[in-house]
Amino acid sequence: MSLLDASTTAAALPYPRLVQAVEALLRDDDVQVPARLVHPLPSGGSLFVMPATDTRLAVVKLITFVPDNPSHGRPAIHGDVIVFDARSGLRRCVLDGPTVTARRTAAVTVAAARRLAACPAGPLLIVGAGVQGRAHLEAFVTALGVQQVSIASRNTQSAAALAAHAAALGARARVVDEPNAALADHPLVVSCTTAHGVVLDASPRRDAFVAAIGAFTPQMIEWAPAVVRAIAADGTIVVDTRDADHEAGDLLQAGVDVAAWPTLGDVIRDTPLWRQQQGKRPVFFKSCGWAGWDLAAARCAVPPLAHAADGRSG
After folding, report:
1. Alpha-carbon distance 89 to 60, whole Å?
2. Residue 191: partners with Cβ closer than 8 Å, 6 or more residues away
3. Is the pTM of this model over 0.85?
4. Would you say 311 and 85 are in contact if contact means Cβ atoms under 8 Å apart?
5. Which residues contact 260 (CB under 8 A, 6 or more apart)?
6. What contacts 79, CB < 8 A, 6 or more positions away?
């Protein structure tokens, strides 16, 4: 059994391969994902218990999310992803939970952008320069080849650090002061703040692909309800999974009938629900998280051939 730290977990989850694993998982009828348990903590945070299985692996992610931790110099997310052999029940490895969460979330966004974005090469606007901002920067640069990035954050030091990281990856990067004004120049937009109030209240471009990552509970919101309603009327909304029906704060607070819109799985499988929405722009992709994405990460970290050999050896 292997215990992988943050850097080793990241090395086991290269973005191009992780994007492929996400898409493959959505085509796999053997994947089972029970409802996740979210238990409140006295600090105002939450404990998440998220299981998922297929015919080969069983995973459970145990993480805590405490939104005000960054103000005290601590990461907002702590925890682990435990990976088991689905047949023998043996524990195969333990992955670093925050690293898995960051990388699989960004990989899901890239999988959506590959199918839905009119201009997948960018330029890209990232709103929020935290962990998810960094993960999405790396994923879009390494898996989609984006070369021009703008970064907006209320924390100017974090924005400057992320711009420097983009330059180290070979992309041209700049910091922008006002994200609403920058929307007009960017066909790719990722909002990944932890805000509980509106951050973006301007309309994206007609050809925009917007990935709204930050508001993953009904109480959270990044995009103004009027903007979301306008996209619903004139464009396309896609959610990561049906869990978004009761979790997607941006959509719920806008009064959108979330269940009427397709999931990323519908897009990958080309279902009738998705086909009736094709051709409408802009696209608003709402991601709330799902244990299936953690299972996709586990598939990357525990390759089938190595797994089979381990199983034969007992």
Report:
1. 13
2. 127, 128, 199, 200, 210, 211, 212, 213, 214, 222, 223
3. yes
4. yes
5. none
6. 48, 61, 62, 63, 64, 97, 98
The answer to whether the peptide bond before residue 282 is cis (omega within 30 degrees of 0) is yes
Pick from 112, 137, 129: nearest CA to 211: 112
Position 262: which residue type?
A: P
Q: What is the pLDDT of residues 226-276, one digit of tens each?
A: 999 999 999 999 999 999 999 999 999 999 999 999 999 999 999 999 998
| Whole-number Å distance between alpha carbons of 71 and 94 | 28
Share of the chain above pLDDT 90, in %: 87
Residue 52, classed as helix, strand or coil, is strand
Q: What is the dihedral of CA 42, 132, 297, 288, to 10 degrees?
A: 60
> pLDDT by residue (tens digit) across 124-183?
999 999 999 999 999 999 999 999 999 999 999 999 999 999 999 999 999 999 999 999
DSSP state of 106: H
CA separation, residue 10 to residues 14, 78, 179 (Å): 7, 15, 29
Domains and CATH numbers, the chain: 2-100+292-313 (3.30.1780.10), 118-289 (3.40.50.720)
- Residues with Cβ < 8 Å from 211, sequence gap 6 or more? 109, 112, 113, 136, 189, 190, 191, 285, 287
